[in-house]
DNA sequence: GGTTAGCACTCAACGCAAAAGAGTGCTAAA
DNA sequence: TTTAGCACTCTTTTGCGTTGAGTGCTAACC
């Protein structure tokens, strides 16, 4: 019988769910009477109290102090998320918002992600994050140079995932347009598809030999490229809607809030967290699950964005532990679906065309 | 006699300065006794009280309630900033920090500005902002295209101020590399140096005629360029060190804080404020001077970054009204001096070389 | 006339005790 | 196993006197 699966009776589940739901909405401890009123259970508050005592013993609930109601523990929230969560259906208005605002931002991935994190924040009322994760080893698919002045050109690099990055290069000596063109060709034939750590001195020397006239320019350019690759390795993260956190009483403790904001500024911890995720499913980290101390009272939910089997970004939401997970999950799914669609459309288009073109 | 200039006696000035100094440091109201102790005035607390009462009548001081000390009013702070401010000398350590961290970030203006705002936040302990102001009409100095696939190329544009911006372009029909090269040439001859509003239909039609084969590609590209120009018009702003605000009691009111954070998120108001500034001096906006309601209890100080006589960015600081203006001014001057130097060095280099090169 | 000592007055802040309220645990009966 | 009832616990709220910082005013002083 399913009434005994996972070691919890149906009634216990119902009570746990009711408590979590109420706690998510209100933020405070939940008492037995409240549940009795807002739930059609054919039993008395005393029975509920007994059940609650047992749920507490099992570790799903906690009691702030003797005469308060119960609050779901981390374990309780985890169980709720894994087993009890009801599907949230987005309103047509929300769907429309996603469609409109995201389509309008069609363009570079960075911008799409930022717009998405903004939307996530708006729709869920938590803080949104947009992430370009650290990747083990990026490589450049194509180089281009733009000549500006005798000692000044721009180096443009297109990464394997389609991102474009540019650097102004100022040289000590002069470079001619012809030299620059040769340099550009050289970069494209020697330095595409390889990660930073494979740019070795022998390789550089070989390139210099091939360059001939103006060989010293190779070193300058390669240094810039190296720096550029390192920057790409770093990952990026942008945050939106920090102000929304303030509406939740769990952040009224200034100390906590300050620490969390500090973590959001530093970006490292969260970037690590997201970059470490293996699959492309939504990840939910409740409280201490994240292993980041300052997030013990918060939850982080994020969804990687995958293109061509490679994780190119992630969008997510940060908020109190008692997050409205149903809504957050639906929103992130909706957003990521939309983004993936946009990327897929491209791919199909390109795929179809290149079949004909090649 | 200078003892009467600006309508304030020397002693009144000294008292006002003492009050503002103490208020900046402590945040609370300042009493007559405190001043007597920390200031060598040869008079009694009663005299100081009399002076304070007069200063209040003149509008320089305010009294939170009858039995509290005095707090400088907006007018008082303004007078302090304009007349009483003492020069703050940066420590060698601070100077070294600016030099090291900024030099390390040498590269794109965006990154320099962000690094500078970060530094500003660190050194002053307020929130730092980096801004690329709205400019009335940007133009593109140079276009470049990067061919990727038959229906997919990248358009790179270099603005007159040296910023690089790129857009992926996906076309419905296919474009050949040869067509793309011609398109690129066309863009460079027709669309350099003109702002968005001068891209007219007749111009487009003329370009299409000149293009010949693949003329429809012109429309696609021009649309992208138009969007790109509009984006450049918008301005950008990034914020760092929000968490530092929390240490100041004036932001312990969650409502205020939330509003201010909202304003920082929206960026518009502050972007407006900065973009509207005329000269390249440091601007100081205390409380309601900014005309932005939510900033009534805050101060905004910023310094435009000028290159070739054109404002290309700004760095600034946001914090409580009782900001340590001396330190903030010194820090911003130091940072902007450094940045300008970096930009100037380029210019001289280029200038010298191009004389020889052209 | 400006300056000073002295004193009454004001008002936020603090501490504390009593009261209120919410919710539990336990017991005994159904 | 469930339930009604009740004593108990602990937080929250409220009220109130106390404290203390700081002022404003008056009268004397130089």
Structure described in brief:
Two copies of one chain form a homodimer. Chain A is of the alpha+beta class. Chain A is built from twelve helices and ten strands.
* Contiguous uncertain segments of 5+ residues of chain A: 1-5, 348-358
Average pLDDT of chain A works out at 90
In terms of DSSP E residues, the strand content of chain A is 15-25%
Q: What oligomeric assembly is this protein in?
A: homodimer
Number of helices of chain A: 12
Radius of gyration of chain A: 26 Å
Structure, explained:
The structure is a homodimer of 358-residue chains. Chain A has 358 residues and is an alpha+beta fold. The first copy, chain A, is 49% helix and 18% strand. Chain A has twelve helices and ten strands. A five-stranded antiparallel beta sheet of chain A has the order 7-3-10-9-8. In chain A, strands 4-5-6 form a three-stranded antiparallel beta sheet. A two-stranded antiparallel sheet of chain A has the order 1-2. In chain A, helix 1 (10-26) packs across helix 4 (74-84) and helix 8 crosses helix 9. The first copy, chain A, is elongated and about 90 Å long. The first copy, chain A, starts with 9 loop residues before the first helix and ends with a helix. Chain A binds chain B through residues 107-108, 142, 144, 146, 148-152, 154, 156, 158, 162, 164, 166-168, 170, 174, 227, 240-243, 246-247, 252, 254, 257-259, 261-262, 265, 346, 349-350, 353-354, 356-357, and chain B through 107-108, 142, 144, 146, 148-152, 154, 156, 158, 162, 164, 166-168, 170, 174, 227, 240-243, 246-247, 252, 254, 257-259, 261-262, 265, 346, 349-350, 353-354, 356-357. Chain A binds a DNA duplex (30 and 30 nucleotides) through helix 3.
